[in-house]
Amino acid sequence: MNRTLILVVVAGFALLAAASSLFTVHQTQQVLITRFGEPRRVISEPGLNVKLPFIDSIIAFDRRLLDYDAPGEEVILGDQRRMIVDSFTRYRIVNPLDYFQTVGPTEAGIRSRLNAIVTSAVRRVLGNEPLLSVLSSDRARIMTEIQRQVNQETRRFGIEVADVRIRRADLPEANTQAILSRMQSERERVAREVRAEGAEQAARIRAGADRERTVLLAEAQAASDILRGQGEQEAIRIFAEAFQRDPQFFQFWRTMQAYREAFSDGDTRLLLAPDSEFFRYFRESMAAGPAAVPAGQAPAEAPAAAPTPAPAN
Question: Are 39 and 97 in contact (CB under 8 A)?
Answer without folding.
Answer: yes
